[in-house]
């Protein structure tokens, strides 16, 4: 553990990150940033589509019919 402690003490995460980012071309950085930011839109669309599906199931009373059908098959 002593060797690991010595290595960790001399390691600066901010400097290592800056050194890595300096190697990436601006075009690749822009592409990476736009990819990461696009994930938030996927979360929103996933939520909205699920909301529409849930609303359609409830509005059509499909879930109520399914509940009634299954209630007749369950033992008392």
CA(first)-CA(last) distance: 63 Å
Q: Work out the radius of gyration.
A: 27 Å
Helix amount: over 70%
Low-confidence stretches: none
Main beta sheet: strand number and arrangement?
none
Q: How much β-strand is present in the residues?
A: under 5%
Concise description?
The chain is 86% helix and 0% strand. The protein is an all-alpha fold and 76 residues long.
Tell me what you see in this structure.
The protein is mainly alpha-helical and 76 residues long. It has one domain. Helix content is 86%, strand content 0%. The protein contains 4 helices and no strands. The chain has helices spanning 2-9, 13-23, 26-59, 62-73. It is elongated. 0% of the residues are buried. The model has no long low-confidence stretch (mean pLDDT 86). The chain crosses the membrane at residues 39-60. Keywords: Membrane, Transmembrane, Transmembrane helix. This is M48 family peptidase.
């Amino acid at each position: 553990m002593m060797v690991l402690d010595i290595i960790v003490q001399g390691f600066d995460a901010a400097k290592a990150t800056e050194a890595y980012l300096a190697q990436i071309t601006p075009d690749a950085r822009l592409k990476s940033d736009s990819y990461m930011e696009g994930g938030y839109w996927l979360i929103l669309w996933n939520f909205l589509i699920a909301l529409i599906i849930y609303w359609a199931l409830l509005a059509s009373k499909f879930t109520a019919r399914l509940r009634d059908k299954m209630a007749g098959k369950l033992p008392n």
